[in-house]
Design a protein that fits this description.
Strand content of chain A: under 5%
Mean pLDDT of chain B: 85
Order of helices and strands of chain B: EEEHEEHEHHHEHEHEEHEHEEHEH
Distance between the termini of chain B: 37 Å
Strand order of the largest sheet of chain B: 6-7-8-3-9-10
Largest interface: A-B, 27 and 30 residues
Radius of gyration of chain B: 25 Å
Number of strands of chain B: 14
Helix content of chain B: 25-40%
Helix content of chain A: over 70%
Number of helices of chain A: 12
Shape of chain B: elongated
Low-confidence stretches of chain A: none
CATH architecture of the largest domain in chain B: 3-Layer(aba) Sandwich
CATH superfamily of the largest domain in chain B: P-loop containing nucleotide triphosphate hydrolases
Largest sheet of chain A: none
Low-confidence stretches of chain B: 311-319
Distance between the termini of chain A: 29 Å
Radius of gyration of chain A: 19 Å
Structural class of chain B: alpha/beta
Order of helices and strands of chain A: HHHHHHHHHHHH
CATH topology of the largest domain in chain B: Rossmann fold
Largest sheet of chain B: 6 strands, mixed
Number of domains of chain A: 1
Structural class of chain A: mainly alpha
Oligomer: heterodimer
Number of strands of chain A: 0
């Protein structure tokens, strides 16, 4: 546990001494803040169910921004350690690969949560000023969904960063992989029958969509949790395999 | 403390380390000497648990590096070729992080950091960001990292690279002082470093061990006869003839005479023979002036080249 915490602490510290955390969090809040105002002014007519509509619009916007910002959070996770040679320090210290991988992943999740947290201000604002109040289920489902969805993307990005020594390549690979996952959703709309159902289950964005409607579905939770476990497991294997490769 | 037996590491078709066996006693400093690419780093990486060997066994502090990797890692401090530092951390934060991943409890960390900063004379750089340090200081931070948790075994891959001459002397001193309480393996391709710091030397070439001995034994054992250097005022040809006729003399080499008529010559003698007095007598007999005469034993450098170059002498690059 001490080893895991040491890695976690170090990673978090590194986010905040480098510009990464400030750029990611700052950009995220700027964009979501701006669009929140835009959506509110749209909805303030006599649209029925306006609070739910605004919430959903904001939550869907989250997903789009994650696509661009989250690769920046994970790109350096292993690529930089390999390039600097610090991975050799970690791997000759009495800590396991699992501790390294989990420590790093939890740190990226913490940064991610720190990025979502200030948006709660918008929710509070809606609670104070909108009538009817925004439905609690949508707020809860939306944020839970965002955490799970973002976590899944972060686990994938972490894995891809372990494959290369160059953080730009890691970021580009991650972005490409996110786009590809997105593209499954187009397939869902095109296909029908069993194929469509399978694609629908596999679509990383489709489950998130359910959450933004306030539907907290075990299928969705299972999907994202399995996704994270799969890619964290692959990352552990990938980090371990570095021992067999010629440096 | 360290026992290595028949250690072999192959990267696909390339055998980097080939049936290497040696042992290091507690408190000893072992030098790992070899040209670049000889397999020094690979051997060290196997000992530190960074990579597995293809075959053979290695035990560090009584633990097998393959089956008990975690235990081995607890007993080891390792400085890789490039200091494994995080540029955005301060020196003290970095060392504290290293102590944390080495599983050192919180109440001991502060004292350990203070202690190692003093040992490596980094006290005044304590709160500096590592990226603002010069290369020599970074190397010292790397060294501090290998010592900070007070490990039984310290493995240093070229610890003096990138340091200025003064720092090199300091680091060698530091390493010498660590011996006794710690068992140390250090690799280098700088020969004086080995004769100055190490108790024993392993010369490794192309993945194989060429020799294991004390620096002193290596020099005496392998000194294939003495070499005598002469400076005399004598006619070139006659001197050459005279020296060649001395019984027991081998190869005779003459430099071109200097303007003042002095000429330098080297005579190689067969093993176990001291020709110095004979050479002196012969020269004086001829009525020539003898200005210098001295026996030169082969330096570690010569031995190293002898052991690590192929039969066909390769032109030696000068640096």
């Amino acid at each position: 546990m001490r080893g895991l915490y040491a890695i976690y602490r170090k990673e978090l510290g590194q986010y905040f001494v480098s510009p990464v955390a400030y750029v990611v969090v700052g950009l995220f809040l700027l964009i979501t803040g701006h669009f929140f105002m835009v959506y509110v002014s749209y909805a303030s007519g006599d649209q029925p169910d306006a609070p739910s509509w605004v919430l959903r619009a904001v939550l869907q916007l989250f997903a789009l921004i994650f696509l661009f910002l989250l690769p920046m959070v994970t790109m350096s996770a292993y690529a930089e350690e390999k390039k600097r040679g610090t991975l050799e320090l970690l791997m000759t210290s009495p800590i396991t690969e699992l501790q390294i991988v989990l420590g790093k992943f939890l740190a990226s999740m913490t940064l991610f949560a720190a990025m979502l947290l200030p948006t709660a201000g918008a929710i509070v604002y809606m609670w104070m000023h909108s009538d009817p109040a925004p439905p609690f289920r949508v707020v809860l489902g939306g944020y839970l969904g965002a955490l799970l969805f973002g976590g899944a993307l972060l686990s994938l990005g972490t894995f891809l960063s372990s494959l290369t020594e160059n953080q730009i390549i890691a970021a580009v690979l991650t972005f490409a992989a996110f786009l590809l996952l997105w593209a499954i959703d187009f397939g869902v709309q095109a296909a029908s029958g069993p194929t469509g159902q399978v694609l629908q289950y596999l679509s990383v964005i489709n489950h998130y969509d359910d959450f933004t409607r306030g539907i907290i579905d075990t299928a969705g939770v299972t999907y994202y949790v399995s996704f994270m476990i799969l890619f964290l497991f692959l990352t552990v294997r990938s980090v371990d395999s570095m021992r067999w490769r010629r440096a | 403390m360290i026992e290595v037996e028949n250690l072999t590491k192959a990267y696909g078709p390339v055998t980097a380390v080939d049936h290497v066996s040696f042992s290091v006693h507690k408190g000893e400093i072992l030098g790992f000497l070899g040209p670049n690419g000889a397999g020094k780093t690979t051997t060290m990486r196997i000992l530190t648990g960074y990579m597995p060997a293809t075959s053979g066994t290695a035990r560090v502090a009584g633990f097998d590096v393959f089956t008990d990797s975690m235990e081995v890692r607890r007993h080891i401090g390792y400085l890789p070729e490039a200091p494994p530092v995080y540029p955005d951390m301060s020196v003290a934060t970095y060392l504290d992080f290293v102590l944390r991943i080495k599983n050192i409890p919180a109440d001991k960390r502060r004292a350990r950091v203070d202690d190692v900063l003093e040992k490596t004379s980094l006290g005044d750089k304590r709160n500096q960001l590592i990226k603002r340090l010069s290369r020599g200081y970074k190397q010292r931070v790397g060294l501090a990292q290998a010592l900070v948790h007070d490990p039984d075994v310290i493995i240093l891959d070229e610890p003096t690279v990138g340091l200025d001459p003064k720092q090199i002397i300091e680091v060698r001193h530091l390493i010498k002082n660590l011996a006794g309480n710690h068992t140390i393996i250090l690799s280098t391709h700088i020969l004086p470093e080995v004769s100055m710091t190490c108790d024993r030397v392993v010369i490794i070439n192309k993945g194989k061990i060429a020799a294991v001995d004390t620096p002193l034994n290596l020099t005496t054992q392998l000194k294939s006869g003495q070499r005598i250097q002469i400076e005399a005022n004598a006619p070139e040809k006659a001197l050459q003839e005279l020296l060649a006729q001395i019984p027991g003399a081998g190869k005779v080499q003459l430099d071109t005479p200097r303007a003042d008529g002095h000429i330098a010559a080297t005579v190689e003698a067969a093993p176990g023979q001291d020709l110095r007095s004979l050479v002196a007598a012969k020269i004086v007999e001829k009525g020539w002036q003898l200005y210098e005469l001295r026996g030169v034993s082969m330096s570690l450098e010569d031995i190293f080249l002898e052991l690590t170059t192929d039969e066909v002498a390769q032109p030696q690059a000068t640096n």
